Structure formats: C-alpha cells, structure tokens
# Entry
Amino acid sequence: MDDLIVRGGTVVDGTGAPPRRADVSVRDGKITAVGDLQGVASRAVIDAEGALVTPGFVDLHTHYDGQLTWDRELLPSAAHGVTTCTLGNCGVGFAPCRERDREDLIGLMEGVEDIPGSALSEGIKWRWQTFGEYMDALEREPHTLDFALQVPHDALRVWVMGPRALAGEASTEDDVTALQALLREALTQGAVGFSTGRTDNHRARSGAATPAAEADQRELLALARAFRGLGHGVLQAVSDFNLGEGPEPFDGEFDLLEAMAREAPGHPMSISLMQRDQAPDQWKRILARVERAEARERLGMRVQVAPRGIGVLLGLQATFHPFMGFPSYKAVASLPLPERVSALRDPALRQRLLGEKSDRVAGDGSAIPPVADWLLAQMDQIAFRIFRLGEVPDYEPPASASLGAQARARGVPVLEAVLDALLENNGQELLYFPIYNYAAMNLGPVREMLGHPQALPGLSDGGAHVGTICDASFPTFLLQHWARDRATDRLSVERAVQMLTQDTSRHLGLRDRGALAPGLKGDINVIDFAQLGLSRPRLVADLPAGGKRLLQDARGYRCTIVSGTPIAREGALTGALPGRLVRGGH
# Structure
C-alpha cells in the first residue's frame, strides 16, 4: 500500500513535457507511480482536482547558514514551494570556524547579507569547528526542507590564514595548499560545491573588504583543482567585474572565472547575473562571454538570474528608509510605531524635518551599507525609481507610479511625497526600490536573461537581508508573473516549472529529485494556479535577541510535500520536519 496519493491534478512533471492529468503515488519517501491510479490503495489522499501538481522547487541561492542551527521551519522558503535549498553562497558562511573566529564570521555575514549580528551571536548553536563537523551537526537536526551546503571561501581563508585573511593579505604557497586540502576534504564529505565573492558591494560589518574579495588567480585556480576526480560539485561566484574601475577590467575578471571553470572540468559554475545601472549592458557582455566559453569548450558555465528587480524595501519598520538620518526623525525614532507616526504627522515637526539634511547613516560598525548615504544624497532622482509596493505587490510598476512622478504631478517636493507614502497604512506601508534589473523601467531585460539557455533561476537570498527584502518569494513570483500574469513574453507553465525543478537540481548534480517520475524523491507541490499570488511582506520580531525580519506569505499552495510528508497546507506549516541534509556524491 502506498503512503500517499496526490489524485486528480494536472501534472507538470518538471521535464518540460506538456501538462497532463494524472495521479502521483509515494511510498517510503519516493514516487512509485505517475498515471491513472484509480483503485490503488493509499494511507492518505490529497485531492488535487483543478490544481497543478509539480515537483518541489530547488532554490540554488539561500543564506540560512546560521538560521538552520536554531530554526527548523526555514521560512520564508517553506512558504513558497521550495523543498530543497542550497546554502553557503557568495563566499560567506560559518564553517569551518574556530571558536576565536566566530565573531569575525558573524561580522562578515552581517555586513554582506544584512542579518543582524546580535541575532546570529545569540542564535547560532556552535557545535562544530571543521566543515565535516558542521555537516554532522546539521544532519542531526530535522527541518521542514532538505538543504545542501557549499563551502564558503571567506570561512576557509579565515580558518587557514587567521587575521591575515581579514587584513586582506595575499595567501602564501602553504596557505594555498591548506585551502585546497580543506576544500577537497569537505567535498568528499558531502559539500555540494564551493562559493566565492568578488564584489565591492559586499563588505564586512566593519566596512572592510571580505577575505575572498581580492584572492589572486593562483589561489582560485588551486581551489578549482580540488574538484578534479570527484563525481559531484559546483562552483558559484558573485562578481561585479571591477565595475568601479570602468569597463576595461571586465574581460580580465571574466578570464579568471573562466579559468576556474577550466581547472574543474565536469563541474559546473554559476555566476550571478543582473542589470546594473552603472553599466546597463554589462549583463549582455557576461552572456556573450558565457556563450563563447560554451561554444568553444563546454565548460558548464551558467548564470543565476532573479525573476524580477533586485532591490530593497523601505519602511518605518524596515532596516532602511529615507529619513533615518534626519535629526528630527532620530529624535522620535525610538518611539513605538503608532506614536512615531503621530509625531511625524505633527505639522511643526513635519516642517522642520522636511527642511533638514540627512546625517551620515553608514559606517561606524553599522550594518547599513555605504550605498545608503549615496542614495539619500540622490533622493530627488532616486524617487523616480521608488514605488508603493501595495497590498497586492506590484513588482513591475510603470514609471508614472513612482513617487518622483507623483510628486511632480502634485507639485510638491519629492521628500514630502516620500514621507506621505511612508505614513500610509498607519506607518506600515512599504516602498519598493528596484536597484538592479529595472533600468528600463520594466522587466524586459529580465525576460531576456530568463530565456537564455544558460540561465538558472536564483539569487533569492532566502534568510538574508532580512530587514530590507523578502526575495525568497522568487519561485512564486516566477511562476505567477512569467507563466500567468505577464501580458507579453510569457513562459509556458511547463518551462517555468522545469526551471525551478529539473534545471536547478541537475545543475547541483541532485538526480534523485527535480521531476515527478518513479524512483525519485516524493517532493511535490499542489498549486491552485489561478489563485497563486503574493501578499505584502510583513515584519515579525521572531529572530534571536529580538531581531526583526520580513516574511512574505503566498496563497495558492494547497500543499507542499517533502519526501512524501506534507510540510505545509493552504499556507500554514503542518509541523512535520522531514527535511534532511543532502550530501553531494553520497
């Protein structure tokens, strides 16, 4: 007898095949049959009539590295159809780690990924030093979702080089030998890959560059060679291609990443891809180089693409908003939200506030990035890219909906329009500022990126930037917007599902999931496609040390199933914890 049958749904099996009506049965955590299963006995039945039945989604790019140790639910990802997530991205993480280095790695994670250091310091249950011990510690704790681990370059460097890594020193030959050996050991123990961060936008809490940011070619190629002879493992890199120095360094930086891929034959590499305003066509140069590398050598180079603008949410309760550096705002900032809203509506304070200039808000150990001060100084221009998110979030708003355009139409100063918007909904309104992927004031370039044969959906950053974004909802948005709501250039539903399931799982080398077929894992979503949608993100204070984070609910997920066990029904977690560590090559 089967443990579970999902009956009567429209199966979109993850392979790109056309949807078809079928049942799906699961026994002992694995799919046993897909087809007409009328008369087949089962201990439990899920009615999927009128719904899509898909594989569970595989998220390539999350940052739950610390959260996993205190939180078993793994929200927000568990609310968005994700059944497997990958950690250890962008070169930051918490293993390997000696006791003396804990606060340094916390400072890196706080600075790079905007996770409150106080929450990490109080919440992380340090039960490891080596990467193998980290895997063992996490394996002992059940979670809602399966999770796979990459080895982060920063943590490796700090383990081997100590303070020299944090000071930005170059590695010695002995250092490189040790780094390579440590990575190789972690991969053989089940790490699914290695990640490195090479962008000036990523800074430690102190403002210093991350340890891996300026690692030289000798070191990076040696680390890539650690993959040789192994049957699994991927490389992941985030780079801005030295954009601050102009367009000239681009090819040299890409040459380096391509050389890494060449040194690890048979091991795919993914690179973050986005449209940056400073160089709005750089993404096309990246794709052209990827195409050339694939045509010439088939190196397995892929690009991770976000399905919408990448930016921040601004609000009176969020990490950042345009008035946080103003003296009159700082005088009331500690008040509870209702009292703060009342004070900001007072005509005298309002007049004083709107006549002020912002103090500096970044630096001095603050987790607020230096770019925040630049944004504040450019608010009159930036406001033409700031929008109300709304009760039903609109992630492709027209230029006419920007606060700058509305201020111009009203004949009022930009800051006044921004303040009015922040005070709406009793001060709970969120403003959406897409920093990347929105130079065209629409998502046309994103559609081009998603349609590229080397594209993978990614960059959700689940668990990170907790007070400024909630992009763990990317999988829901990709399916809702690109396969249903977009007026033009839609993806077929079967292609959208394939991207979220088979494409991502195959890239990681996880061939036991990513499709609905006998013998594969019973990771399944039952989705009311017509009702699929996102709610406005909400701020909750559920992190350790009283930390706050944004969560975003979704509607339309009738059921999400991990290894044959429902972990969520109709948007609510069931309390089941079937999720386990996925060891690459095991």
Observations:
- The CA atoms of residues 109 and 312 lie 18 Å apart.
- DSSP finds 19 helices and 25 strands in the chain.
- The radius of gyration is 24 Å.
- The chain has a mean pLDDT of 94.
